[in-house]
Design a protein that fits this description.
The complex is a heterotrimer of chains A (114), B (198) and C (802). Chain A has 114 residues and is mainly α. Chain A has four helices and no strands. In chain A, helix 2 runs antiparallel to helix 3 and helix 3 packs antiparallel against helix 4. In chain A, 65% of the residues are buried. Chain B is built from ten helices and no strands. Chain C is mostly helical. In chain C, helix 3 packs antiparallel against helix 21 and helix 15 packs across helix 18. The radius of gyration of chain C is 39 Å and the shape is extended. Classes of the chains: A mainly alpha (114), B mainly alpha (198), C mainly alpha (802).
Chain lengths: 114, 198, 802
């Protein structure tokens, strides 16, 4: 209960971010659909973004303690942009894969097995 | 309990819940929709943390662009056998164990630092947020107006530069990605494929 | 320049000319003329050049030392000599003076302590005469050989050598090699004649031996020829063993090898040679062991005296006492034995070289060589070297040694003559005849007939080489040596036949007694006369005379047997008779030349004996008594044999025995009144004994050859079964060890390496399985890795930070 009553600090955001991250990781690990994995990637990136925002927020840290300030937000911005780019590429790969193999099941994409 | 906390709980629970739903759902279309909701809630968390510009960008770019793209992809590949694919039970357990351990570690480390659990001293400080668009924009152009005040002379001189370079890099990066993706996903001639198969 | 300088130069060049020819032919022989024919001209040129130089030397010698009446007329009246020399007494007035001899050294090879080995000369009348004789005969034979060895100018098919497939052996011709060896032989023989010391004599002794080996084994692919060459060399070596013992005895006691004295520029004697030491002028040139020999023999007594004086007077006193005792010791006979040993040793060498009993076995086998070789080496020169050495070393032989020589010669002449009666190979007959005649020479020298023996050497050289060359001519025409297949060849080969007749007449000593005769008549006469004289003085040795006379008879018999079987009568083999033809001019002209010499060389008008008389060693003229081992032995002086009381009976006996033998041969083989076959069957046991050469070869084979072969076989077996087994065992052991090493290497070392590689491979294989290709698994692994990293950082941060 202490968690709920105390004022919101960076830690809470970090916790949320952790949850999102783990969900995304599990999603990546379990989904057989390629697009499902993509969705996991989005979740992971978002979890990371939350962390950055939390650390860069003026409202979540005590005065006088060091903080990364604006850097956090800008990093989050860049992450968003890069996530978009990466999603585009991943989608292109998936579509390519779908065109060649007529399936999006990643379990079928095991030709690189040693 | 103030409104900050309430809103926080609201958004965070939404985000986590729908993220969980993404994980647990087996229907790809539903997963896409839950993801949209989860990311929207995340944007709200951004707003709460005072990063209004970033939150807006999240909604614009991430939800409105990336996820739409994802939905398009779902649409293009949504054939009946692919819509819901079941995962092996063993994989679930393994993932759960690994994920669980990671979650435990992350949680433990999140709450381990006392500095991170302390908010600003005054209650006013906790809720007043200054608009950051201009600051972010200026920063992207190379001027760090937010750090001007408490920077020493040395820092002002050269170290405290802006985000101009990363901005440009990212722009080029996007261009490259666009071209690449467009090339990768081009339509192949059917005839070549048939010959290859024969 | 006096003779003492020109003679060595002339004779030296004459000696070295054949050596130059040899060297030229060795290096360039094959390229001289077509197929090497030019080699013959080079060799002939060299030897004829040597003959011319020898003739010039002879003329020079005769100019300086004209032939006068025999020296012996100026000698003692046959007075006796004191048994032992008396100190301080002047030598007898009529003691014979030493002969004129020039001696000196060309080159000193080594001088080690007392030993001085040098190349030097000792030239007296005998040397000059020998040079002329050797070079003349050698020239004739060289020219003869040009014709005889014609076959060797092209490829030769040797029918006596069969290859393994039965075909006869074909080989390229060796014409130039023959003349190469002949030149080398000429050089060696002349070196032996001119040599001035015994060491040089020994060197050239061996050289003529090796040349003989080369020449006998000229057709070396024939087993018989190579065996014969080996036999000749080995038997000669046996004799040389005794020679070396004699040399050691001489040198050890006397300290020098040189024959003549070494004189300084003024003619005074610096060092005495062998002859002067053993027959010293102070002693009247009588034989006496020199001081060195006496001292060696009486070494114990000398040691005693030295020991005695060591306490008292010292060195000088010891020496003076030794000197005073010396004569007494000499009288007692100390040192005499050593002298006898030296003489017998040197004679041993001569036994080997001149094929005397018991080493006569090599000469008949030596007939395997080509006939020119037999003519030159084994009749006229090399075998004469033994007689020459006995003649040269005559002054140092004691009476006992001389008697041994006489007996050996006597036995030899008898054995050889009897074997020659039954021999059917024309060259074998002549070989045995040579052995027999050498026996005559040794007998003559042994009974004191120095001139007689050497005179016979000279005449024998001429008629024996003539006989051999005639037989070679016959063989060349008939292609066979077997007399049983010849006959009636006189019409077909007149030159050969008549020259051979001259030779036969010469050898049997044909002549009209007291008037004239062939050369052999004079020499044989003088031998028999001297033998008779000796046996008159020593009646116990009458057997010597009987053997000599009987031998003359047998000689006549077998020589004319040979001549009749070859030239008279019906031809026995028509094929041979058809084929026979006279030899070419290059072959019969030397025959005629030699026939002339064989006929006339012995005539008194040429004075050969007078020439030899000039070389008579000092002190050998008078009757000699004073033998110590066999006292009473008396060697009469040679001039005594010319007295009527000896000379007349000797001549008559010689003539009648020769006539008897001649008549017997005529009866058997010319008139065919008695069939030789029937006689042979009647005395078949005797015949077999003679046919097998008195079983000497079988005896030597059993006594010497077989034991050596036995021992060698045992040693070969030992080598094969013990040593080879051991070595093979070692090799097998090494192989075994190497096999073990190989196993270890393959199983252990390779196994280890392969195992490591295998482990790595399987590790890689198993690690490959991590790459499943499944995306989701990769994601899981990433997360797992992250978790692990977290754990590490969290829980172990403390240890790093500290």
């Amino acid at each position: 209960m202490n968690l709920l009553t105390e004022p919101i600090g960076a830690a809470h955001y970090l916790a949320v971010g952790a949850v999102l991250f783990v969900c995304g990781a599990v999603c990546m690990a379990t989904k057989r659909n390629a697009l499902g994995i993509l969705m996991g990637i989005e979740l992971v990136l978002n979890g990371a973004n939350l962390n950055f925002i939390a650390f860069g927020s003026r409202l979540l840290h005590a005065d006088g303690t060091p903080s990364i300030g604006l850097d956090g937000q800008l990093i989050a911005l860049f992450v968003i942009v890069l996530a978009a780019a990466e999603a585009a590429v991943a989608l292109a790969i998936t579509l390519n894969f779908y065109n060649n193999h007529s399936t999006v099941d990643v379990d079928r994409a095991d030709e690189l097995k040693g | 309990m103030n409104w900050h906390t309430v809103y926080f709980l609201l958004f965070s629970l939404t985000a986590c819940g729908f993220a969980l739903a993404v994980v647990l759902s087996s229907n790809i279309v539903r997963m896409a929709f839950y993801l949209v909701l989860s990311l929207g809630a995340t944007a709200g968390l951004f707003f709460l943390a005072g990063a209004d510009f970033i939150g807006a960008m999240q909604l614009l770019i991430y939800v409105g662009g990336t996820l739409v793209l994802l939905v398009f992809g779902v649409m293009l590949t949504a054939q009946s056998p692919f819509i819901s694919m079941k995962t092996h039970g063993g994989d679930w357990i393994l993932a759960a164990i690994v994920g669980g351990s990671l979650l435990a570690i992350l949680m433990q480390s999140a709450f381990s630092m006392p500095q991170w659990r302390v908010g600003p001293a005054t209650a006013d400080q906790a809720t007043i947020a200054t608009p950051t668009t201009t600051i972010v924009g200026e920063g992207l152009l190379g001027v760090r107006v937010d750090a001007m005040a408490d920077a020493s002379a040395a820092q002002q001189a050269g170290v405290l530069s802006g985000y101009l370079l990363p901005f440009e890099i990212v722009s080029v990066h996007l261009l490259v990605v666009l071209i690449g993706a467009a090339y990768l996903a081009r339509a192949k001639r059917r005839r070549v494929l048939r010959e290859a198969e024969a | 320049m006096g003779l003492s300088a020109t003679l060595p130069t002339l004779l030296g060049i004459a000696w070295l000319l054949p050596l130059a020819s040899f060297v030229l032919i060795v290096f360039f022989g094959r390229h001289m003329g077509s197929h090497g024919k030019g080699a013959a001209y080079v060799a002939c040129g060299a030897i004829i050049g040597a003959f011319l130089l020898s003739a010039i030397s002879l003329c020079g010698w005769l100019g300086e030392h004209p032939l006068s009446a025999a020296r012996y007329e100026a000698a003692t009246e046959g007075g006796e000599l004191a048994k032992a020399p008396v100190e301080g007494v002047a030598p007898t007035e009529h003691a014979a003076a030493p002969p004129v001899a020039y001696s000196g050294d060309w080159y000193t090879l080594a001088e080690v302590g007392k030993l001085k080995i040098s190349i030097g000369w000792y030239i007296d009348a005998l040397t000059v005469a020998m040079f002329c004789m050797v070079t003349l005969i050698a020239s004739c034979i060289h020219v003869y050989a040009i014709g005889y060895m014609h076959d060797e100018l092209h490829e030769v098919t040797d029918h006596e050598v069969k290859l393994s497939d039965g075909h006869p052996f074909v080989r390229p011709g060796r014409f130039h090699r023959f003349f190469q060896y002949l030149s080398l032989f000429s050089f060696s023989m002349l070196g032996l004649v001119i040599s001035g010391n015994l060491a040089m004599t020994f060197v050239f002794w061996e050289l003529v031996g090796i040349c003989s080996y080369f020449l006998i084994g000229f057709y070396f692919e024939r087993k018989s020829a190579s065996n014969a060459a080996n036999k000749a060399f080995i038997v000669n070596r046996v004799g040389d063993f005794g020679f070396i013992i004699g040399l050691m005895a001489l040198f050890g006691a006397i300290g020098t090898f040189t024959f003549g004295d070494t004189k300084d520029a003024d003619g005074r004697v610096i060092a005495r040679g062998i002859f002067s030491q053993i027959r010293s002028p102070e002693n009247g040139y009588q034989l006496a062991p020199p001081d060195g020999m006496v001292k060696s023999a009486a070494a114990d007594k000398v040691g005693e005296i030295v020991l005695d004086h060591r306490q008292m007077g010292g060195e000088a006193a010891a020496q003076s006492e030794i000197a005073s005792e010396m004569n007494d010791w000499r009288v007692d006979g100390w040192g005499y034995g050593l002298l006898v040993v030296a003489g017998l040793g040197i004679f041993c060498g001569c036994v080997g070289k001149s094929a005397q009993f018991p080493l006569q076995v090599w000469l008949p086998d030596a007939m395997e060589g080509p006939t020119p070789v037999s003519a030159l080496v084994h009749s006229a020169t090399m075998v004469a070297a033994g007689v020459y050495l006995v003649g040269r070393c005559f002054p140092i032989f004691t009476q006992e040694v001389l008697l041994v020589i006489a007996y050996v010669g006597c036995i030899t002449l008898f054995i050889a003559a009897t074997i020659a009666i039954v021999a059917v190979d024309i060259k074998r007959v002549l070989a045995y005849s040579t052995v027999s005649q050498l026996g005559y020479m040794m007998l003559s020298l042994g009974v004191g007939g120095w001139i007689a023996g050497l005179f016979h050497l000279f005449t024998h050289a001429f008629f024996k080489s003539l006989l051999f060359m005639c037989s070679g001519s016959v063989i060349h025409a008939c292609h066979t040596n077997d007399m049983r297949r010849m006959g009636g060849l006189l019409k077909k080969m007149p030159y050969t036949g008549y020259t051979m007749l001259v030779g036969c007449l010469a050898i049997i000593g044909t002549g009209i007694p007291f008037v004239a005769g062939f050369s052999g008549y004079y020499s044989k006469d003088s031998i028999i006369a001297q033998t008779l004289s000796f046996t008159n003085h020593n009646p116990v040795h009458r057997i010597l005379f009987i053997a000599a006379a009987g031998g003359a008879s047998i000689t006549a018999f077998y020589m004319f047997r040979l001549w009749y079987m070859t030239f008279i009568g019906k031809p026995k083999d028509h094929h041979v008779y058809e084929h026979a033809h006279e030899s070419p001019k290059v072959m019969w002209i030397p025959l005629v030349i030699l026939a002339v010499f064989a006929f006339g060389i012995g005539w008194p008008m040429w004075g050969l004996t007078n020439l030899l008389e000039q070389a008579r060693p000092a002190g050998t003229l008078e009757t000699v008594k004073g033998a110590i081992i066999w006292p009473g032995l008396e060697h009469p002086g040679e001039h005594l044999s010319h007295e009527a009381g000896i000379h007349v009976p000797a001549s008559i006996i010689a003539f009648s025995t020769a006539l008897a033998g001649f008549l017997l041969a005529t009866v058997f083989y010319a008139w065919r009144m008695v069939n030789p076959e029937e006689v042979k069957n009647q005395f078949s046991r005797l015949y077999n004994f003679l046919w097998h050469k008195w079983y000497f070869d079988e005896l030597y084979n059993a006594v010497f050859v077989q034991p050596v072969m036995f021992v060698s076989r045992r040693i070969a077996d030992f080598d094969k079964h013990v040593i080879d087994r051991f070595i093979d065992g070692c090799a097998l052991a090494v192989r075994g060890i190497s096999t073990i090493d190989d196993t270890i290497d393959r199983w252990l070392v390779d196994g280890l390496v392969n195992w490591v590689a295998g482990v790595i491979h399987s590790t890689g294989l198993s690690m490959r399985r991590v790459q499943t290709g499944r995306l989701r698994q990769y994601v899981l692994l990433i997360v797992v890795g992250t978790v692990a990293l977290f754990i590490l950082i969290t829980f172990f941060r403390s240890s790093w930070a500290g």
